[in-house]
């Protein structure tokens, strides 16, 4: 079950980062309120805190590398769910490869 917890935590972390970056995008590119920067900053703070909760926190580089794979997948899901753009076959394939990379990095047996 620790693997499932790790993957769920990665997805929540990615969501916090995407929200924290999307809100300033709405302000800068879509002319929305500058007040969006407040929840954006909070979301990015939560994102940074969530990264500290991941297993193997002593190996931060490994966590960040594996997180990148989940971020790619979450960004494609965001594209579909929030921006209304259906992912292409290539988007799905690329996301799948990124998730496989995350799994290899995080769950491969290691000497302690």
TrEMBL record:
Family in the record: Belongs to the UPF0060 family.
SUPFAM superfamilies xrefs: Multidrug resistance efflux transporter EmrE
Source organism phylogeny: Bacteria, Pseudomonadati, Pseudomonadota, Gammaproteobacteria, Cellvibrionales
Topology relative to the membrane: Multi-pass membrane protein
Range of residues in the leader sequence: none
Cellular localization per UniProt: Cell membrane
Protein name: YnfA family protein
Swiss-Prot/TrEMBL keywords: Cell membrane, Membrane, Transmembrane, Transmembrane helix
Segments passing through the bilayer: 7-28, 34-52, 64-82, 88-108
